[in-house]
């Protein structure tokens, strides 16, 4: 059964982790194993219902309001602002849970955020109806403060930045990443040959973008390792003090490592930035709410940091495409642009001069918005307004909890924690219970597992006799279980990522058992080979 397939496997190893897992998934579906379990997907298998039901109610109210000004069959007019807040409150049913949430949201907007009721409701209703281009294009005025307070509450750990942060809602974290790299390059903030530090292992797109011909950037891995429990260590952080490093890209909490940076790591990073004050930092915090006591790099280094966030994971909303990029109103990006040579300003002036009278004064975040639509279509840029309102509603489900724990976040954490615990329990190795561990993904190293369950000689035999992805391929083929190969994320050889997000709870024990069964089969083969060798 353990025939050599190394040629095929060698070719496969060149592909990205996502492409490999699609291949494994095909093998697993064709497998004769009775269960097909795909634990490679990070897409959650839960959703938030409250915000979605509230969205539907806003659409209903919006249609009713539109008919006030014009009503001919399905044709209706525009929404009027005057008195809309009162009509909205009258529309809400006091005993309906969704309407109660909308009532609480209204109170939050008018009392806590001191918004004018009519302006806020008109903004949200126009947003869900979607009859106007997004204006202002970067972010709707009613949406931005809501997003800012959500980020402040969940990502900054007490640092007040809601009023000094500018947000650009995007089509998921994915678009935020694309727009951001594009604008960094267009504004000569990263140039071919620049040194960029990446905290690997990392979500593959980050590894793949910089190596694209477009960028030709030099990567510097600040590798987090299993020995270090996937946390970035002090010596690695200190490397960032070197001013030749222009940009540091990190996913925090990490994917696939799932660890959040500790307070100590954050202060070490601050110390490094004190020596390299122009360091640009991109932090992707999409898993923030799954860690305990989380604090973003943005909270401690707002001047240097661009923050990427997405509602996809927590709210089960990957199809909505809802994410954002945020920057402080005073930031190193604007400063570095300001310091560019006259020649570069002239070149950039040709680009941005079509849309701004004083292009040299245009902020980096607005350049990003313009670049997201190739400059020429700046006037129709910005995220679809219903998507922006959906983000505001997701945020409000959390904000209306005030100082009380958010039961939805508690429940989502418990769900993945239970799966994680069952998985490691069945795998018979201790789980990492650190509060900085989000447990969204588990990383296991097959060679280490082999050494723990059997011995080092067997682990060495596995390493020497099989291609790195052999285990994952066979797990798919023979047991119908698909994991993601961690090496595609820049992890050490033999690392597999088990997503805790996408399968039913009991499946995680089955996956662990399948891993152990397969390891046992390799071991039996190893013992037989030993015997043969002794003849
Ligand atoms: C899932 C994920 C994203 C993508 O987010 P979308 O909002 O779905 O585009 C971005 N970054 C990381 C680290 C992710 O895991």
UniProtKB/TrEMBL annotation:
It is an enzyme of class 2 (transferase). Keywords: Aminotransferase, Pyridoxal phosphate, Transferase. SUPFAM superfamilies: PLP-dependent transferases (SSF53383). Residues 157-514 form the Aminotransferase class I/classII large domain. InterPro entries: Aminotransferase_I/II_large, Aspartate_4-decarboxylase, Ethylene_sulfur-biosynth, NHTrfase_class1_PyrdxlP-BS, PyrdxlP-dep_Trfase, PyrdxlP-dep_Trfase_major, PyrdxlP-dep_Trfase_small. One of its GO terms (biological process) is amino acid metabolic process. It comes from the Bacteria. Its EC number is 2.6.1.-. One of its GO terms (molecular function) is pyridoxal phosphate binding. Its cofactor is pyridoxal 5'-phosphate. PANTHER family: BIFUNCTIONAL ASPARTATE AMINOTRANSFERASE AND GLUTAMATE/ASPARTATE-PREPHENATE AMINOTRANSFERASE-RELATED, BIFUNCTIONAL ASPARTATE AMINOTRANSFERASE AND GLUTAMATE_ASPARTATE-PREPHENATE AMINOTRANSFERASE. Belongs to the class-I pyridoxal-phosphate-dependent aminotransferase family. This is Aminotransferase. It comes from Lactobacillus selangorensis.
């Amino acid at each position: 059964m353990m025939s050599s397939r190394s040629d095929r496997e060698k070719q496969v190893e060149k592909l990205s982790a996502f492409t490999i897992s699609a291949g494994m998934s095909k093998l697993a579906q064709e497998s004769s194993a009775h269960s097909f379990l795909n634990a490679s997907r990070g897409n959650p298998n839960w959703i938030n219902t409250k915000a979605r039901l509230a969205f539907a109610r806003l659409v209903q109210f919006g249609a009713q309001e539109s008919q006030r000004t014009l009503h001919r069959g399905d044709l209706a007019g525009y929404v009027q602002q005057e008195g809309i807040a009162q009509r909205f409150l009258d529309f809400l049913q006091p005993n309906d849970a969704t309407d109660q949430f909308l009532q609480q949201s209204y109170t939050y907007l008018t009392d806590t955020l001191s918004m004018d009721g009519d302006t806020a409701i008109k903004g949200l209703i126009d947003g869900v109806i979607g009859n106007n281009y997004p204006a202002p294009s970067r972010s709707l005025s009613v949406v931005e403060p809501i997003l800012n307070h959500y980020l402040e509450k969940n990502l900054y750990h007490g640092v007040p930045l809601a009023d000094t942060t500018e947000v650009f809602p995007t089509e998921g974290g994915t678009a935020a990443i694309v727009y951001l790299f594009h604008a960094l390059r267009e504004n000569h903030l990263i140039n071919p040959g620049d040194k960029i530090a990446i905290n690997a292992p990392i979500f593959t797109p980050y590894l793949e973008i910089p190596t694209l011909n477009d960028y030709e950037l030099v990567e510097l891995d600040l590798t987090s390792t299993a020995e270090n429990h996937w946390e970035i260590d002090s010596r690695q952080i200190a490397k960032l003090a070197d001013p030749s490093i222009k940009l540091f890209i990190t996913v925090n909490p990490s994917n696939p490592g799932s660890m959040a940076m500790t307070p100590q790591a954050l202060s070490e990073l601050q110390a490094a930035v004190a020596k390299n004050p122009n360091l640009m930092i991109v932090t992707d915090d999409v898993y923030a709410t799954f860690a305990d006591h989380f604090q973003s790099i943005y909270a401690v280094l707002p001047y240097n940091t661009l923050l990427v966030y997405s509602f996809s994971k927590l709210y089960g909303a990957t199809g909505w495409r809802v994410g954002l990029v945020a920057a402080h109103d005073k930031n190193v990006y604007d400063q570095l642009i300001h310091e560019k040579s006259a020649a570069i300003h002239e070149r950039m002036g040709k680009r941005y001069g079509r849309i701004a009278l004083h292009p040299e004064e245009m902020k980096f975040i607005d350049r990003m918005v313009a670049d997201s639509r190739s400059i020429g279509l700046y006037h129709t840029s910005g995220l679809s307004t219903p998507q922006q309102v959906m983000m505001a509603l997701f945020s409000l489900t959390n904000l209306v909890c005030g100082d009380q724990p958010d039961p939805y976040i508690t429940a989502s954490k418990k769900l993945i924690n239970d799966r994680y615990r069952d998985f490691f329990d069945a795998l018979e190795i201790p789980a990492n219970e650190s509060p900085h561990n989000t447990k969204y993904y588990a990383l296991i190293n097959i060679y280490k597992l082999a050494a723990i369950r059997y011995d080092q000689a067997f682990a060495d035999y596995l390493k020497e006799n099989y291609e790195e992805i052999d285990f994952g391929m066979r797990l798919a083929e023979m047991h119908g279980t698909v994991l993601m190969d961690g090496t595609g994320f820049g992890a050490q050889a033999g690392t597999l990522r088990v997503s805790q997000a996408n399968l039913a709870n009991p499946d995680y024990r089955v996956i662990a058992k399948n891993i152990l069964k397969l390891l046992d089969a390799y071991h039996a083969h190893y013992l037989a080979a030993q015997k043969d060798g002794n003849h």
